[in-house]
């Protein structure tokens, strides 16, 4: 089963955003969600449709307000949002315009993208959750339209979902071409083979590198300059596996086929080459467990949601008065 | 008062470049200059005009020599420099060409930029000081024209000044759109809310990230890959405050609403999550004070001017014979 | 003698890829190969021609297969590969298209590049070795055409070779303009004065910065986010010298005019400001010798070939069970 399958939305409902308690998040079924995700039920499917329409309607409303405030953007908003029939065509068009070049016209890319987005419902489901994630976790995000039009981490992630579809269907040449255009245009280099869940925030995003056999769970927040890298030149499973709810700080390198447990937090600038237990915090170069190996401090909130980069780390690093 | 206001140019005259003594730089009035800057006098205003004209005349002379040496560039130099009436129109046009896209034509952007640059004199004042800063501190800089046409750190900084003007005047949608084009084109992601002083060098610049409530003082040098980041997802004042004369080495993360004192030096690859006293050097992950907490070594030169990344650090790091 | 001169290909033949033994690699003549490289013999020259034709013929075959699999790419492949007479014109055209802008038309750049590539045989020799290096060391590389069309590290390196030719021939204005377009388009900032050997892999490449007086030997692998930086603002020799066969992990900063010995390995995220002996491993911030100063562990394989980022480091970093 693909990692981009929708997760049980019930388990998400157990996570009130006021609280961010981890207790119910870390149920046995969601631990290492990267392995235990299950397909969505009929009820969830209908919720999905409503949700998707809600997002698209909201985006169109926001766009209408924006062009009243800034008529200078009318043409841009018309082409990108207001003239589009569906969220699928809007996304296909916007990605195509961004990734096109003299060699790859936007019409060619747009046709290709829209076919994939209309046939692969999991991409649209995940994309909607990504939009929500950016809105909820990034205080710099003004609106859905703001994220959709501008956030290169969001756009790079959606382009990757398309490239992953192509890769999984044997169209490797196109997949790697998209990967490389995304790397040129957004500075984000995700191998099309990588499996990425939903509810993903790639914040700022410049310099992110994700290798071929990496797996990223659901509700993960990754800052710019993060590497999920391999080691050695052998083929085969050689990249990190990131659990659900993980927060990875800016400039961190995680190398090799190692597990980062659900709800773990990796401090900025860390170098991680060994497994990290669930709900713990590691930091430093080399990364060390906050609280020590035998009794590491356990996080009681989901770090990818709180986006708290320094809790526990701050006390640990008592180096300046 | 805005941080981009001109500083007292007299205090700059007290800093002979042969000497770089800090004694007069760190006067009470300039300490945490981010809070104590005062508006320029009439004398300074007239000096400003002369200075600006000097820079513009010098750039045109350099451009004329360049096209004699490389006729291949005649058309490019004509459009960018030689046909332009003022430094304002030249900058507006050059930024517009760089940041334009299918969706945002360069004429639209150029009209917008020139209106802002002609009305906001502080931007042009700061821009001129940035040009000087690059010329004085970066040995790889050949000429003013070289910097003006090519240095993406310089161009990203000027685009930010325009975006900050828009942001401060309530035109947030345009401001964040410029922010994101700068992030795509130059790999530099500065939130338009951030306040940045003058005499700024963003060297190499790829991967720089500056958050919404960050404040950067005057005469600061920041290398590529530096993050001035927030922590948590709450709105409000959450990013670093960088004093005057600070040097921040490549790849460093400074996180949270903490002060980096005037004239401090942060070594490359550091992670800083606590206040750094003025004129001290911190380095490492986690960053540590060189000389120790109780008796840190005090710098006697302005690190952003000397660009000396290893003095004191080198002795401290005696790890290889 | 230029560092981009061909190395003795016999010494390469002594390195069976199954083995990667260092014994014959680290002969006295190849130690600090950056200083001791010698020009190629007549025999090697004829080998070069055959090799180059082999690569070009192979690329055309691959391209023909690719367009059968993906007819959508026919036009792109025709212009980039299939209609090109030689590898020189193909490279000149492809780089020109990537680096062109409104200000710098691709035809102007293409004419300039093809003249340099057809007159400077060392560039084509080095480029061919770079293609081989990517194919041999990067498991994500599908084919020669895949690398040639897409890998921004590869393309940035070739653009640098052209810019270095211009710089060495006194055409500094054009050289720095190419440098800065490469920095904008690929996020790779290599000063045109830097000397770079052959068989170079710049993997992922975003954020790489190489200073003016840096020297990189042969068969070197450098990951994204690596800085070979200077210190201070004085002109003169101020950047690192990287020996043959070195592997530099992601996000590492090497600062100042220091030597990194042949066959050394620098772990990801390291900060290196002192000399590193040949065949040793350093890691951390500040970087430390694995095994200690007096008895560092010596590598018996060439790290740039094995691309093993964690051997020895993993044991050293026993911080999580």
UniProtKB/TrEMBL annotation, chains A, B, C:
Which family does the entry's similarity section mention?
Belongs to the transferase hexapeptide repeat family.
Keywords, sorted A to Z: Acyltransferase, Amino-acid biosynthesis, Transferase
Xref: SMART domains: SATase_N
- Domain called Serine acetyltransferase N-terminal: residue spans: 55-159
EC code:
2.3.1.30
A single GO molecular-function term is: serine O-acetyltransferase activity
Which BP terms in the Gene Ontology apply to this protein?
Answer: cysteine biosynthetic process from serine
Gene3D superfamilies for the chain: Hexapeptide repeat proteins, serine acetyltransferase, domain 1
Q: What is this protein called?
A: serine O-acetyltransferase
Superkingdom as given in the UniProt entry = Eukaryota
User: Signal as a keyword?
Assistant: no
- What are the GO cellular component annotations? cytosol
